[in-house]
C-alpha cells in the first residue's frame, strides 16, 4: 500500500514514513487525530506479528501503583468481564507472547501471534482491558493483586497479602535488585526515578482504592498512549479495528505525564545502604561497591550505542581494563558493568561484588586512575575493534533470546519515543555504528570517558553492605506493626476486615459463569495447523564423524556445535566438566594470552563458548546422554578463523595460571548466587529432581546446588587444592576432547556448511582418538526433603517424582493436563488464593513431574494444594468449548517460533534424545484428540507422584525453621 493511500486513514494521520533497511521494512508514524494516540507501524515480512499499547506512568510514591495497575487491568473489563481474561488467553490462544511489564517510567502491554484471527482477538482483549477495566467498581481486584489485610478470624493475627506485595518481597530479597534500585535513587533523587514503580513492600499497604483508580484515570488515556504494530499484518485492517472499536470514542486531552530531569550534582555523592544475609552467613567479602554516572539522554543514538560498547570494553570481557585492574588489586570477586539506557537519563555503573566496606577508597582510586591512564595513553585499538565487532554481530544477528523480534524493537523505540525523541533512531544503527567505528583511528572512546566519567560531577559512590539477620529484624518489626494496627482497631473495624477477607475468598473461589467465559474470543480447531512443524536435518558421516546439517536461512552466519561425549568422565570429576567449560576460551593458550585471545574471538566470531548438557533419552527410561558442546558462530568469510580458534582453545588451553583460575572461580560463584535469587524456582525444582532422577542428580552436580558447593569450596581452599585442580582439568580435557562419539551440528545454508566442512581438519588435528569405557554412575532415590535457607522474604516450594518409575508412560495428553492444572487449579490455589507470584508444572518425556511455586509466602498451604491436585483432576468436567481452549493453549506452547540458531539447538537435542518427527506428530495428535475423560484418567498419575512425598523448599530462614519438623535436612545455601 502506498504512503499516499495511508496519509489519512481511519482517523489516523500519517506523520512520517521511512525505510529501515536494518529491519528489512518500512516504518510509519501516525497520530490518531480525535484521541491524540500515537501509533508506529513497522511493516516487514515477519509473520510473528506484535501489537502493544504503552503508557507513560511516572510514579508519585513507593506504593507501586503502576505495577499493581499493570496486574489489575487484566482482571476483567467492560467487554470481557471474567475475573482474569489474561489467564483465559494464555489457556486458549495461539499467542507467541502475552504479558505486561512495568518499567520505572512506563507500563507496556504487548502481545504477539502468527495467526491473524488470534492477533485481532488478543488486541481486542488488551485494548478493552487498559481502557475499560473493571477495577473502578471491584475493590477486590486491588486487594488480590496489590495488598489487603488478611484476617479470617478476628482472634488470629492480622497479616498482609497480595500478589504484587509478595512479588516485591522477593524482588527486595535480591542484593543485585537492591543495588540497581539504590543506584537509580542515588543519581536521580529529585525525579520520579527516586520512587520504586514496582512498589516497596514497606509502602505498598499505603495504597488506597481512591489513589489506585485516580492513577488509572489520569494516565490510561489514548492521549498518553504509544501504540505499536509490527510484522506482515494488514495495516489498513489493523488501523480500522483500533479506530472503530476504541479510539474514536475518546477525545484528545492534555495528560501531564512529563518526566522531569535531574539537575546535575556539583560533586560526587556518597551513599551507604544495607541488604540482608542469613544470621549464620559470614559477612566477609559480601559488600557491593559501585561508581555510577548519569550519561546524557536516552534520545541520543550515539551515546545509546557507544556506552553499550564501552560497558563491554571496560568491564565485561576478559581483556577489560577496569576488570583486570580491580582483580589484580584484589578488590572484589566479581566485576561487571551496568548501563541502563531505558530511562530518560541513562546511567553507567562500574560494580564490584564480593568486596569489603574498607575497599571503598581503593576501589574508587583504581577505577579513576585506570580511566585516566586509558585517556592519557589511549585504549588498545585491537580491544576497541573486538568490542565494536561483537556488538555489531549481535545487532545484525538480532537473536532475541526467544522473544518476538518486534517486541525488542518496540522496547528499543520507546527509549527515545517516550521522551519526545525520534521513535526510529535506535533501530537505524548503521549510520551511528559508522561514526563509532571512527574510534579505530581516533580518541573517540577516550573523549567519552573524559567527559562522562572523569569530569562528571553527576555521579555517586554507592556502598551496599551486608547486615546479618536484617530480613529477620524487618519481619519482627512488621509483626509488631501489624499487632499495633490490630490493637488500634475497633471490634466493628475488625469485623469489617474479616468480612472483606471472606468476600475476597468467596470471589476467588467462585468460578466465572459460562456467559462471561464465552465473551473471551476463541479460535476453532480448524484454525490450528494439524501437522507439527519440522526442522530439516540431514545426517551424514564424514571421516567417521556424524555430521548433522540444518539447511535453513541464517543470513550468512554459520552456527556450529562440536558435541563431545562426557559419559566417560569419572563421577567425582562431574563438577569439573562445568569448571572446564567456564575456563576454556578465558585462559591462556599456547598462542595467545587470555586478553589477546578474547580480542581474537570477538574480532573473528560472534562468540565461542562451552555448554555441558544432559539429554534424557525419550525411548530408554533413565538413560541420560551426557555431552559437552563447543558452540560457535561466525559470518561466512570468518569461518576459517573460527575453526582455528576452536582448535586453539580446546587443544592448547593452559591451566597453570592460579590467579586467573581463581578469578574465574570467584566470578562463577558470584553468578550462581545471582541465579539463586533471580531463578529460585528453577534452582529448587532442579534440587528436588536430584532426589529421584539419575538425570536430576547429574544436573545437580553439573550446575545445581551441589556444583555451587563445589565451587564455594574451591574458592575457599584454592591454594591447597590448586595442584589437584590443574591435574583434573588437564586430564579431563584429554578425556572430553576426543573424536570418538563426537557429533558436529551445523545450522547454515549450503555455502557456509561447505566452508565448515572444508576447515574441519583444523579441529580434528587437536583431538585425541581413544575409546574409553562408559562410566555407570550409581544412583538410588532418596527422600532428602531439604529446607534450603536464604535471607529472602519468600519461598520457592517444589514437590514431585518420576512417574515412569511408578509404571506410567509419557504421552501428549500430559501436555494438556499441564495447561489445565497450571492455569486453572494452581493459578487459583497458589497464586490467587495463596498470594504467590507464580506456580508452574514441569513434565519431561523422561518422566519427571515437578510442581514449583515462585515468590510464595507459604509452605504447608502450597504443598497441600499440590497434594490435592489429583482431586481436581478426578472431578474434572468442562464444556467442549473449554476443551478446545485448553487444546489451543497447549498447541501455542508447542508452536513457539524459533530463530535459526534455536532451530539448530532443537534439532540437535531431538537427534541425541532419539525424538523422531513421527513421535512429535503422535504427541501433537494426542493433544488435538484429547477428551474430558482422558484428563480424569491422569488423576492417578498426579496422586501417585505426590504420594511419594518428595519435596524441597528454598526461602526465608525463619519460615523454614518454624516448620523444621517437615524437613529431613535444613541447609544454609550461601557460603
TrEMBL record:
<dbReference type="InterPro" id="IPR011765">
    <property type="entry name" value="Pept_M16_N"/>
</dbReference>
<feature type="domain" description="Peptidase M16C associated">
    <location>
        <begin position="464"/>
        <end position="714"/>
    </location>
</feature>
<dbReference type="Pfam" id="PF05193">
    <property type="entry name" value="Peptidase_M16_C"/>
</dbReference>
<dbReference type="InterPro" id="IPR055130">
    <property type="entry name" value="PreP_C"/>
</dbReference>
<dbReference type="GO" id="GO:0004222">
    <property type="term" value="F:metalloendopeptidase activity"/>
</dbReference>
<dbReference type="GO" id="GO:0046872">
    <property type="term" value="F:metal ion binding"/>
</dbReference>
<dbReference type="Pfam" id="PF22516">
    <property type="entry name" value="PreP_C"/>
</dbReference>
<dbReference type="Pfam" id="PF00675">
    <property type="entry name" value="Peptidase_M16"/>
</dbReference>
<dbReference type="GO" id="GO:0016485">
    <property type="term" value="P:protein processing"/>
</dbReference>
<dbReference type="InterPro" id="IPR011249">
    <property type="entry name" value="Metalloenz_LuxS/M16"/>
</dbReference>
<dbReference type="InterPro" id="IPR013578">
    <property type="entry name" value="Peptidase_M16C_assoc"/>
</dbReference>
<protein>
    <recommendedName>
        <fullName>Peptidase M16C associated domain-containing protein</fullName>
    </recommendedName>
</protein>
<dbReference type="InterPro" id="IPR007863">
    <property type="entry name" value="Peptidase_M16_C"/>
</dbReference>
<dbReference type="Pfam" id="PF08367">
    <property type="entry name" value="M16C_assoc"/>
</dbReference>
